[in-house]
Design brief:
It is a single chain. The chain is an alpha/beta fold and about 700 residues long. Helices cover about 45% and strands about 10% of the residues. It is built from 30 helices and 14 strands. The strands form three sheets. It has a seven-stranded mixed β-sheet with strand order 6-7-14-13-9-8-12, with helices on both faces. The chain is globular. It starts with a helix and ends in an 11-residue tail after the last helix.
Length: about 700
Amino acid sequence: MLPTEVFTCFPGQMWDRVLSKVKKAVVFMDDKCAESLHWNGGATSVFESGARNLKQFSSFESGGENEPKAVFVVSTLLKGRTADIIQDIVGLSHFQYCVVFTTVAHSIHLLANNVTAVLEGNPVFEQFGDKLCEWMGDMNYTAEVMHAPVVFAPVSPQLFLAPTFAHLFPLLPRDLEAINMKRPEKKRFGSLTDVDLHSLTPELQIEIKSLASAVNSMFESTSTREESFALGPMSRLIAGELANHPQAKNRRKTAPNKASIVFIDRTLDLTGAAGHHGDSLVEKILTVLQPLPGHTTDVQVDMLELTNLQRTTDSQPTLAPGCLVQTQSSTARLLWETMLASKQKEAVMEVRRQLVEAASKENLPIKMGLGRVTPEQLCSYIQLFKSNWGALESHCGVIQLGLATAQTLRHPTLPRWDSCLAFERLLLQALGDSDFAGVLRQLLPLMKPRAAKGEEGSSSEYSSGSRLGEEECGPDELLVLLVYLYSLAGEAQPADNEEEEEKVERELIGALTLVITREAELSPLLQKLTGCGSIEELTMERAHTAVEGVFDTLRELSHARDHLKQLNSVYTASDGVHQAMYRPFLRQVLEEIFHPDRPESPDIEHMSGGLTDMLKTGFSMFMKVSRPHPSDHALLFLFLVGGVTPSELRLIREVVSAHKPGTQVLVLSTRLLRPTDVPELLFTTQRLVPDIGV
C-alpha cells in the first residue's frame, strides 16, 4: 500500500522545480501561487534557494539595474492580462535571463489558442520564450517557459487545498438558464446533470481542465492508478475530465499503486457549510480574524502584545502580522494539526499545554492554571516571552497560534457565533412542525437595523442586556442564516398556501434591504453584493435589487439533491423522543462507501476512462461483473469541490476510524470554508466566467 507521506511530499517536490531556478533572481509571483508557497515553506524557502528578492506580480514592479535575472510564477494562461503584466515588468527592467513558470499545462494553452491538433514539443511555450527575448531587447538573451503544477497547499497531512481554484464553485439552476440562453431551443438542457463540458463557457472549461490536470500530475508523480467517482454535476465534469485525461490513460496501464477518488459538489450540503454547529476552534479563528491580504485561508494574528508599541490607529500597519502557517517548527505544526482536527475544548487545552511547556523549557516564571482556559490566561503566558528574545524566537510558532486563539476567544464579534448556533437549532426544530412560511416568519424579528436595536423606544427584547452590540447578527450573519434555512427548505411541512410564503419573502426582502442601508459601513461581502465601495454610494434601489437577486438564488438551494435517489436529505425530523437533527451529507457518503455489504450506490457514479471500463459497465447489466467501488483500495481521496469545513475534517476522521480503520483518507478541496464564505460564493461569484488571467 502506498503511504500518504508520498502524496504529502508532492506539493513540495513541485515547488523544488521552481526553487531550482531562483538563484540570483528577482522572483515575481501572483497571489494564488504565493498562497500555495505560504503553505510550502514560505518566502524563507525562496531566499534560502538564493533569490535576491521576492515581489508581487504587478505592472508596478520591476527589477533593478544590477538584477539581470527574473523568475515569474503565475497561476494563469500566458496570454492577455498575464502576458501584459510580464511585458510591463520586463520593459521596466534590465533582464537578460527570464524564466516563466505557469501552473497551466501546455495542452490547456493549446486549447485556449484553439489548437486541436496534437503537436510535438511545447510550441506555445517556445513562442512565449521568443516574445520574452523580444521584450528584453535581444534575441540572444535567455528565456525559459515551463509548466509547474504548484497548485496544492498542504494545510495538514490529511488536507490539501488548491488556492488557485478557490472561487471554483458548483453551478446553480440560474447558471443553467444562462447556458441554455445560448443554445437552440431543441438542444436546451433539462437539468444541470445533463450539462456537458463543451457546453460551458471557454473560461470554465479551462478552469475544470486545469484542475483535472493538477490532480493528474499528483497521480503521475506518485505512479498511482485511480478510479474516479462523482457526486453532483460539477464533480461529474471534473471526474470525467480526469478519467479521460490523455496522459492518464497511459499512466493507468503501468502504474503500480492504486487509489479511489470521489469528487463531491459542495452544493449538495450547504447546511454544513453555513452552519455554526462544528464546535471547531479553527472555524472560529478563520471567521473572526482578518484574512491575510491576497489569501483565502490564512489570517492575520496581531503581534502588538509582544512589542512595547502602544495601540494607536497608526501603529498597526507598521507591524507585520503573525499567521497560522508554521512550516519551520515541528512542535507548532503538530499543534496546528491538533487545532484543526479537534473539538474546541480539546484544542484550547492543547494550546495552553504547549505554551506552558515552552515557558518551562525556557525557565520562565510561569504560574500553572487549572480548569477552564481563558484568553487572559493564555495572554499572561505569552507575555512571559516578551522580554526574552531567544525564547521568543525559539517558540515563535506556538506563540502565534496561542495569540490567534486568545484573540479569537476575546473577540467582540464571537458571541454572534453562539447567537447563530442557537437560532439554527431553533429553525431545525421548527422545520418539522410547520410549513416553510412559518419557519421563515421566525427570521423577521432578527431583521432589524443594528443602530435601531437597543435605542430608546425600541422593544425591550432588544434594549435589555449590556452586550447586545456584540451578540446581535449583522447583515453578513443574516445572509448565512438565510442560506442555512433555504438549504433545508425541502424538509418543511407541505405548504397549504404558497401566497403566504411569497408574502413573508417580500417582508424579508424589505427588512434585509433596510438592514443593509442602515449599516455604518459595508463589509467586504456587502461591497461585492451591492457593487458599492462605501455606504455613501449605496442607494435603497441598489440594495433592494441586490437582495432580490439573493432570494432568487436562495429559492434554488433546496433542489440541489433532487437528482439523488438515496442520499437526498440531510435532515432527520423529531420523533418525539429525539430532537430534529442535521445529518451531514459527508457522513452519509462515507457510511455508504464503507458499508460492510458494499452495496452499489445509485448516487455515487463511477466515471469510466477507457474501453475496458466501458465494457465492464456494459457487461454488468447482463452478467455478474464486479464494477469498481470506492472502497476497493486502501487509499481514498475525497475532493470537495467548493470547499470543506474544519469540522468536516474531524467528521471524516471519526467515520473512517469507526467503519474502516485500515483505510487512509486524504481530503482535497478548493478552500477551507468559514460560514461567511458561503454567501460570497453563492451570491457574488462569477461561476460561469472564472478569472483565468486573460
